[in-house]
Amino acid sequence: MRPILPLLSTALLAACITGPAWPDSRDANLIEQVEEKADLSNSLSDQIWEWAEVGYQEEKSSGLLQQTLKVEGFDVEAGVAGIPTAFVAEYGTGGPVIAILAEFDALPGINQTASPDREERDGMGAGHACGHNLFAAGSTTAAIAIKDWLEETGTPGTIRLYGTPAEEGGSGKVYMVRAGLFNDVDIALHWHAGDRNSAAARTTLANRSAKFRFHGLSAHAAGAPEKGRSALDGVEAFDMMVNMMREHVPQDARIHYVITSGGSAPNVVPDFAEVFYYVRHPTADGVEAIWTRLEDAARGAALGTGTTVDWEVIHGNNPLLVNETLAKMMDSKLREVGGVTYNEEEKAFAETIYATLTTPTLPIGSESEIQPFEVSLGYGSTDVGDVSYAVPTVGLNTATWVPGTPAHSWQAVAASGTSIGHKGTQVASKTLTLAAIELFTNPDLRAEARKEFDEKRGPDYQYRSLLGDRDPPLDYRK
């Protein structure tokens, strides 16, 4: 759910890091150790890509990752935070505790073969259009490489991998934060599939979603229309009111929706209809202000159409709290690792995909580059935001897709099931490994990151979840 987006304004740009970086002997050895795990990473990502399990239903994907980590010597606790597919895998003792996040849910309603031409997979109602199969595999192999290093060197500390389900609209990490699972973590690392290599310090939008359910009276639409009250009329009136409201919300706000149920037959007045809404804004307070107006519009639509309405908040995420200290470190590690190099077959695949993109923002060839470091506002949202308010957090994107590919597209599904996705995942695994070892061995860096974190949160900060105290919506994709 985190598209790579253009900058909000040039005023947000920070200093650009352009100088080349070369791995020292320790880092070169670590990179080689990660490369030796490429077959494992590729196998994990391909299997999770095949299953394409949606949020809170990732039983096989979660089980595969857990079993892999158990075999590698991790202690695994499954079913944490009241979520059957969430888990925490840990190796080591004492501090510092470095966490790596791993996502593995697919997106419903979109699927594609691993082909550069549009070609749906028979019988599949979902696909990895955000590359979470790669996310899971890359984080897992990085955690294993770090475990091996801790074991070989005898360095004190704990590496912990968090299996975080349902990022796509389910806010799995929020429940894990709320359950206190990050309370003893020093630093959290994450990454994401993308169309470029970047460790830019990019914030995200806070967001909240809900399913608004209208209830009316069914009747024969021709024989007795006066006896009916259309729940679909309630939804349509609500949508019209919100669409008018779009003119009067802050510029950086985003509102979107889908009608998930609108009736079954035109000659039956529908007594039930449902619409699923998202609201986004750079701040949690901004989301809540717009949300109040959304609820008022729902009540008004119900009143005007003679129906009733209720709603269920499905998910809510805080914005990402950027830690520039950690972001600059991650950028330097990414530059040590470098980008992706296509072979001839991959070039041909990329060129075919590229021809299907409407407005690609990067050329083919940029996959081998590292994008400039900058501080900017992104318009996607993620439950990593809540983690970033619990513990200093940093991430990166790597070129797992053809340059210019948008997230949540069939082109992203296709590349996520190929060697192009594998190569970008290797870049992420290597970078995460180097970053974690730097954090284990550099207490001054950890202290500086914590100082920035405390200053940005403020002395009076108290965590507040945008989804309230509800239980995880384990059936929201059913």
Give the structural class: alpha/beta
Radius of gyration: 23 Å
Largest β sheet strand count, sense and barrel closure: 6 strands, mixed
The name CATH uses for the topology of the largest domain is Aminopeptidase
Say which CATH homologous superfamily of the largest domain is assigned. Answer: Zn peptidases
GO biological process, one term: folic acid catabolic process
GO molecular function, one term: dipeptidase activity
Keywords: Hydrolase, Signal
Protein name: Peptidase M20 dimerisation domain-containing protein
Question: Any overview of this molecule?
Answer:
The structure is a single chain. The protein is an alpha/beta fold and 478 residues long. The chain folds into two domains: 334 residues, Zn peptidases (Aminopeptidase, 3-Layer(aba) Sandwich), CATH 3.40.630; 111 residues, Alpha-Beta Plaits (2-Layer Sandwich). It is built from 13 helices and 14 strands. The strands form four sheets. The protein has a six-stranded mixed beta sheet, sandwiched between helices. A four-stranded antiparallel beta sheet has the order 10-11-9-12. β1 and β2 form a beta hairpin. α2 runs antiparallel to α3 and α4 packs parallel to α12.
